Structure formats: structure tokens, C-alpha cells
Inverse folding.
């Protein structure tokens, strides 16, 4: 089978380092699915690993952990999937990625893809939707339903990014909370409103903008941006006994003591923590199945913003380049590899 | 009425700065109790404020936020208390403390004292028990009952201190979790065991000691010590998706990023956050009422370790001195002021 890989170790590989390689077709382990890839999406984890973060190893020059495809074959112990099933999943960052014709994935991490979504629309969702779901419902423990959060407010920092775009929808569609998203450009602000944000504020001078909008404090903050950039803003804006969840580490010093006087809780969300540590990983397949039902019922929609093209070295480099600008809205997707 | 106060502003007042002063008898506001103080206890918040922390003001030279006493009179809107009731409470750090003959307290922050405890035994408990309760049940969200935490482990760092001593009991008596407490001296280790700790480990070289005891990781950590001293230990010992709660800020730098890979949650517990910010403060009176029932049923016992003497300037200075050594087990208490 063919893969799109960086040459050798991925440390600090440039954008044009992607090449076509031939690999042996992998054989599913007893709990695995072998999936023929129909579409993939790119995420910051890809560009970070391409630049040498996390787990550099020979295997990791096949990046990509967000896919939709069709089951080609299943391992001996797999019960709920059969060849031909359309599936979607993020997978696990310790195994080779989905920038390939075929990929293995632990069946517990996958779910049947939403039937109303194209492969490209489905491939846009798993990593960010799992992240947003775990952040909102496992970490912040928001209740689904209208009643509990009627008088509460959630601030989503970087609302137009991949995670923010599905977080806005999940919070708006599944809870009764007021959703405030940050965005600074007209197009990204409009994107957030269309996804369901009740209000959009500019993240430049965030505290002043929040106060001007009548929000001295919020009950919850979901920070989808470098936590160092907004640490002091979060300290000011979070209410006493409030809860912050974040996904992006920082190189800037942050003063954890500053949250003490308000007795605040700070949670890290990291989607790959479950598969990396083998912690109840079936939870992620279950979340994806629940999300698929919401997509098919029209309660959620794909955050796909652009299909860069089929999965080729040049298109993958272009998707990485655009992601690294930090100005993409929603998700960038690539289709299946062209026939050889 | 007489009070034991530091002369003037409390900034950096030495241990011998306490003096007897005469103050006007205060008049209860509509939601207040006027309480005749029978016993008080000392906590790190007292020594910190004496040294100039938090909220220096003229009022704050009467320290002490842990008391048992009898209701002398009640405000117009107080419903559930009557003169003569024995009460106990921590109160709120923005109002004058309990190192006095009489004190005002918001009735919502108080409860009837456990009937089976002496005034000294009761005065030892409110601040630390509220802290431990909120940390275990509101922050870590431990379930009461035997089933949920049967296979889980809670590490309590500084188990023999004031908060640790009641946290051990609450976790052991009200949940089915395995409780590991840290202590380094024979007397404090024995104290932790008597309070119900399943195991005690030395906090010097904590990770190695935990591994030797067969605990590579724990589900929950309640850190009752400077978080900087044990930050790296906590990063190593907390399980993926685990939860840490802490009460003591640090002057040392801590690397919040280090908890990201395990997707850990970190909560600050600060008992005075509710009264300071007016956040559902009746919660604290309710907790104290629940605790009183547990004390009276014999499920919990007072962590009083020594009665320093009656409330005099010299005895209060001595209590502060002993607390500042960092080697007290349980709680130090002072009795009522001697008759003038």
C-alpha cells in the first residue's frame, strides 16, 4: 500500500518533506479494524509531530489521526464491525497515522460514520469532536438538557478553530448554557454565530470586551488557545468556584496561585490520553457513536471548511501550511489518495 | 467586650504582639448571630494574616476563624437559631475573628455544635472539616458509600496536619476508597493510622516510597502541603485522567504543562472562597450540620491534639508559635477568655 510520509524521522521536517512511500499492507491485530481510507483531516497534533514533538519514531513519519473510511477486514475478536462498514475515528497517536491508503485502528476507538455525512464531512470531526465532548461533558461535567445551565455562561476562547467550532455546537445544541465565543476577524465571528454562539467577542483586550458586553464573570471557560496568552484574562473572568478546561500547553509562565483565591478548578483535556494510557478507551468509540446520531438527526453539522484536494504529498504540505498560519476556520480535509 | 488583638495593623506582627483590648459589644445584623465564644482554634490562615497576608485592615487585628460558643442574640431575619444554642463555625475572613469574648457570624455559615463534643473539641473542627469536605466531595466529587471507589486510591499529603487529620477520617468513614497518608515522624504516622489511614508513607522521597509500597499511581491526590514541594511527585504519581486538589499556594515555580499528557484536573480548595465571594454560603452551614451528625454518631472524632490554655495574649502567641513550626499534629485549641 502507499502512504504519504516524511523522509525518515519527522523531527523538524519542512512542509515539502512529504513523499509517497510503499509499505507492506498491515494485518489487523485481534481487536483491530483494517480501514481503507476515504478522507482525512489535519490537526495541530500533526504539525507538532512533524516538527518533532511527542513521540518521534520511525513509525511516526506517517502522520494523520482523523479519518473516515470503509472496513476492509477485522481482527478475530472484533464484534461490532464488518467489512464494508463506513467508519470514522481519530485513533491513537502511537500507531501509524491515516495519511495512507489503509490504516489499522483499535475497533474500540471507532464508530460507524454518520450516514448523512460525506466521507470528507465525517473525516473532519473525530479528533476535535472527541476533544470538545470530553472537555465539556467529562471535564466541565456540563449536563445535557436545558435546565441545569439556564443561568450560566460558557466562554469558548478561539471559537472558530477546529475544536472551538464543534464545542460551540455541542454546548449550544445539547445544553441550555449561554455560549460566548471569541473571534477577531469578521469571517470567523460570523462562522461562530452560524454554529450557534449566542455572542462573539474579540479576544484582543478580552477582559474589556467581555465587560463591555456585560459579562464581568463566566461560569466556565473552554480555552482552545495557548493558555499563557489568556492566563490573566481567565483569572479575571472566571467566577469563584468556576472551572476552566484547556487543550494547549504554553511556553509562557503561568501563575497557578492566582486561581487559589477563587478556588477554581483547572482541567487539561487531551484526547489521546485515553488511548495512550489505555484508560477506558471504549469511551471514545461510544462518544463517536453518540455524535453520529446527532449528526444524522441534524443537531450537529460538520465543521469541514475546505477540501484541500486528494491526499498527495503536495496537498498534505499545503494543508499543514494553512493550519500553521493559525487563521483557519473549522477543519481542512483531504480526500482519498488518487488511484496509482 | 474584650478581644485579643495585635496592636494596630497586623502586618508582620511578631508572636508577642497580642494584647488585650476593649471593644464595643457588636450588634447583630439581620442575618447574624452574636456568639459568646467558649473555645477557638488556630489555623495557618491566622499566622499568615498576622504576618501581613490577604486583607490587612484595622479590623483584622482580631484574628481567629474557628470557634465554638453559645448564641447570645440573633438578628431579625435569623430563623434556625435561638439564644442559648451551642454553635460552631469558621465564619468569614473579612469580618473580625473569634479571638474575643463575643463575635458576630452570618447564621448561614454556622451550625449547631455536635452535642457529644466539648466546646474545645468542637472549636477544633470547622475550618479544617469544611476544607476537607469541600475538597473531597465538592472538588474531587468522591461519592459517599462503599461501592464507587472500592478499587481506587487517595493519597493525602501531610496527613497529620489539621486538614489532613479530618480528611483521612472523612475519606475512610464515608467512602470505600483506600487512603494513603504521608507522614515522616513515628508519632505523626501513628496519628494518621489511628485516624483511619490504610497506609502511611514517608513524604521524603515520596515517589520511591510509594513505589516500594506497591503504588505506582493513585486516582486522587489531596495535597495539604505547599504544592511546589511535591509538584513533580504529583505529576509522577497521579494516574491518567486523575484529579488533584490542593489548599496551599507555593513560592516555587510549577510546570502546569506537565499535567497535560495525562489530562489531569487540578482544583484549588479555599474554604473562605464561598463567604468572600458570596457564593452559596449556606452550603457551609449545611456541611457543618452534616458533620455534627457524624461526630455525634461516633463516625468522626475531633482532631483536637492540645488545649494550649485559655484565650490570653500569651497563650495565643504560643499557639501561633507552635503552628509555625510546621510540626503540629491535629489541632491546637484555646479555651474561653478568663473572667476579667
Amino acid at each position: 500500500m502507499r502512504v504519504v510520509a516524511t523522509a525518515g524521522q519527522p523531527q523538524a521536517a519542512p512542509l515539502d518533506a512529504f513523499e509517497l512511500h510503499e509499505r507492506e499492507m498491515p494485518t489487523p491485530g485481534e481487536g483491530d479494524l483494517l480501514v481503507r481510507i476515504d478522507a482525512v483531516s489535519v490537526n495541530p497534533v500533526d504539525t507538532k509531530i512533524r516538527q518533532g514533538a511527542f513521540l518521534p519514531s520511525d513509525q511516526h513519519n506517517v502522520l494523520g489521526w482523523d479519518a473516515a473510511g470503509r472496513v476492509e477486514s477485522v481482527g478475530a475478536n472484533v464484534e461490532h464491525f464488518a467489512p464494508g462498514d463506513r467508519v470514522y475515528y481519530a485513533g491513537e497517536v502511537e500507531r501509524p497515522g491515516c495519511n495512507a491508503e489503509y490504516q489499522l485502528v483499535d475497533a474500540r476507538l471507532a464508530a460507524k460514520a454518520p450516514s448523512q455525512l460525506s466521507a470528507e464531512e465525517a473525516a473532519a470531526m473525530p479528533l476535535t469532536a472527541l476533544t470538545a465532548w470530553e472537555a465539556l461533558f467529562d471535564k466541565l461535567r456540563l449536563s445535557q438538557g436545558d435546565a441545569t445551565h439556564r443561568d450560566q455562561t460558557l466562554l469558548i476562547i478561539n471559537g472558530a478553530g477546529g475544536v472551538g467550532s464543534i464545542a460551540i455546537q455541542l454546548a449550544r445544541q445539547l445544553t441550555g448554557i449561554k455560549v460566548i465565543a471569541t473571534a477577531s476577524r469578521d469571517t470567523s465571528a460570523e462562522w461562530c454565530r452560524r454554529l450557534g454562539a449566542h455572542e462573539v467577542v474579540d479576544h484582543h483586550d478580552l477582559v474589556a470586551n467581555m465587560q463591555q458586553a456585560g459579562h464581568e464573570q463566566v461560569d466556565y471557560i473552554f480555552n482552545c488557545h495557548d493558555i499563557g496568552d489568556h492566563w490573566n484574562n481567565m483569572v479575571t473572568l472566571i467566577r469563584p468556584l468556576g472551572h476552566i478546561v484547556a487543550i494547549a500547553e504554553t511556553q509562557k509562565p503561568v501563575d497557578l496561585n492566582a486561581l487559589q483565591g477563587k478556588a477554581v478548578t483547572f482541567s487539561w483535556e487531551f484526547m489521546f490520553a485515553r488511548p495512550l494510557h489505555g484508560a477506558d478507551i471504549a469511551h471514545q468509540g461510544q462518544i463517536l457513536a453518540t455524535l453520529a446520531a446527532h449528526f444524522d438527526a441534524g443537531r450537529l453539522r460538520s465543521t469541514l471548511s475546505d477540501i484541500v484536494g486528494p491526499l498527495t504529498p503536495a496537498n498534505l504540505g499545503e494543508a499543514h501550511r494553512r493550519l500553521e498560519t493559525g487563521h483557519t476556520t473549522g477543519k481542512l480535509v483531504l480526500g482519498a489518495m488518487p488511484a496509482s
Observations:
- Residues 129-268 of chain B form a domain with the Rossmann fold fold (CATH 3.40.50.720).
